[in-house]
Amino acid sequence: MNRYNYNRDGFFTGELPPESNKYLDNSIAKLPNILAGKFDLNNAPWAAVGFENPEELKRISQLHIVDQDFRNLITCSDLAQLVAKHLNASQIKVWGSQLYLKPPSYSDKTTVGFHRDSQHMPLFKAGSITLWIPFIDCDELNGSLKYLQRSHHWEHALPASGAHFQNILSQEHLLKEQVADDEWSNISVNLKKGQFSVHHMHTLHGSGPNYSRNWRTALAIGLLIDDYELDTHAPDYGFKKALSDDFLSPVIFQK
Question: Which Gene3D superfamilies did the record assign (predicted)?
């Protein structure tokens, strides 16, 4: 697939290798267990938020340490090799994983405002990317991922950016006031099950509400490539220590 250029646009898309598709199907089959709190690796997620309100976006963190099928998907060597080839990377390391469950709702509570991953994970100064894998076919009706093309080249201090914005149209208006009109390009990445996207840590991205009748579920995998850099003075939420643990933060590709 690879219809977009990572360095130019801040993201690219691709097709999962056959082995990853098998692990994806196994992970989908495990969803009832995950939601019931049954974890076969005998570890609990680092966080599970949004479950108090049926209309809110739900998020479960660190799936690769709680379930073997999810771990197989997240650490799949064929997929890691494909990503490394596209980015010309010599090493890829997992730093985290998050499962997002967007329920059917006309409420803005399932909206994720345009944000940069670097805003919410300031520990990583450079070398962090996100691999995004949908569990169903995604489109604008069910809240597909949206990228602001080339936004990883924009200035980093944009007051109107942030995942907490729940009116994405209003947020777009505010962002346009801070960015030259000729630079604005909003791309809805309507990935099918069996496809994936990868985006830069400074690429602005978000998603709207899920107006469909089905849950929109997707897995976001935080990866570090080559000589990544850390801001040791920034909040690290436990991830700095985890980087030295091969189980919590495994290397999945090495030249």
Answer: q2cbj1_9rhob like domain (2.60.120.620)
CA dist 85 and 233 (Å) reads 32
- Identify the CATH assignment for 6-254 out of 2.60.120.620, 3.40.640.10, 1.25.40.10, 3.30.1360.70: 2.60.120.620
Per-residue pLDDT of the chain (255 residues; tens, 9 = 90+): 455 689 999 999 999 999 999 999 999 999 999 999 999 999 999 999 999 999 999 999 999 999 999 999 999 999 999 999 999 999 999 999 999 999 999 888 899 999 999 999 999 999 999 999 999 999 999 999 999 999 999 987 788 898 888 888 888 889 888 887 667 899 999 999 999 999 999 999 999 999 999 999 999 999 999 989 999 999 999 999 999 999 999 999 999
Phi, psi of 61, rounded to the nearest 5 degrees: -105, 145
Amino acid at 98: Q
Domain boundaries, the chain: 6-254
